[in-house]
Write a structure and sequence with these properties.
heterodimer, B: alpha/beta, 6-stranded mixed sheet
Amino acid sequence: MIEAANNAKKFTETTVGRNCRFTEKIAKSVFFLMTLTMVLPLLLIIGFLFYKAWPALSIDFVLELPKNGMRAGGIWPAFLGTLYLVLISLVIAAPIGVMAAIYLNEYAKENWFTRIINLAVINLAGVPSIVHALFGLGAFVLAAGLGRSVLAASLTLAVMTLPVIIASTKEALSAVPMSFRQASWNMGVSRWQTIRGIVMPNSISGILTGIILQVSRAAGETAPIMFTGVVFYKAIEKGDLLAYGLLDQCMALAMHLYTISTQVPNVPDAVPFATAVLLLGVVLLVNALSIGLRIYLRTHRKW
Amino acid sequence: MVAETAKLNIDGLKLSYGSKQVIHGITFDIQPNEIFGVIGPAQSGKTSMLKVINRTIDFTADAHVEGTVKMEGQNVFHVKDVYEYRRRIGMVAPLPVGLPLTIYDNVAFAPRSFGMKDKDQLDELVQRCLEQAALWDEVKDRLDTLGTMLSGGQQQRLTIARALSHQPEVLCLDEFSIAIDPVTTMKIEDVLKELRNEMTIILVTNLVQQARRLADRTMFLLNGDLIEVDETEKIFSGNAQETKTNEFVSGAFG
């Protein structure tokens, strides 16, 4: 009898229990709302962009040259220029950044020298892009004699993205538990083999994510490239993928967007929006490459 | 005990991390094919001692080692190929570490990194190591699943299989039973009794009775000092030379 009474008591609702469930519900809905607040503006922006850009969007818009003082035609030179700048800066910055981060995280001993390097990396990551632009102008355009060119602009972007790639790669590497490395070392496996066989496979997602974020940044920045290689207008062959040489000047989407929105009067409304859509497209294209690489690595190597 | 026949001679070993000394000069030797028990409370320098023996202490930046460790008469701090040397020593850590690889690759990882590529040879080695670790029957049908998906006890046996994969002469176990159930512990203890025919075993344990069950000789470490090393029977008889040993094994402290 007493047991039954106790059991009954166990299953009746208490005020504490009710409050508990109530706050649980509130907490969950607040967090869900915050998630919505994050996604909604993004969807709105993309939707708005496409809506406004729709009249101008076409294959020809991508492949044509700008005509009539940027007011008509397409944006092929700028599209191709951004693609060049992003890919070349990535090819330069990603390997250097990843290897430097591997050295700093896996090999370097803790001493004043590595502390200074780490401090420098963090501070460089916070330097405004316009400062990088002036550095690029001085170092690559003038001192190295590259002139205002695709290469000089790409190098400037690479210098700008490098510290952030190093920092994010280090972060990804140090997320791999120390016990994995120790287990590997205990078996007489060398440091490099441990890095290749255990550490890299477990951090490659994080490393690639860090690099992807820098792709978007490199594609979107105007300041570092406007002094170092990007021009207002450059005539190239329509739809020609190899139109730019390394030492040519080029156009770029971010810069183009800036000029047609602020410097050129009477541009049809849809053109800047269509340019913005393509800028998004380039970023997604390069991101898709690294996501593809990630999937390839996951499925084709038995890690 | 003639020193020449010993597997390992440790002579005046001191170890400090920065300014903090954790091992204060210990001297002992380990005979071939014996199970050498090491007991002592936490902070006695047991794990650090193992790190010195397999030279993974090299990876600790502020560690400073004095004294000598000789394996079959050769000073291990003078060996040319440290990786080759580490392969002669198997190491099992307290907490099971399943590398995020398949069960097969967990065991094949080390041999592959030394250049063993032949599939048949690898298959045979993997099977033998898993059998020796008493894990083969439980995993033989799912060698290509992730090692990290195994239960704790199975992972610990996987760790042992991995330690055996580079065919060591000395197997060091560092409190291997800390995270596993009694049944698995007994299984592994049986494995160790088998393995002693093939190799020397250093069994660091915080279960005093485990040392009593398995070890031929037992060493008692306390705060980085060697209190006593003797036949296990003697250590546990209650008539050990040092009163501290008697107190520790009877559970008076530690």
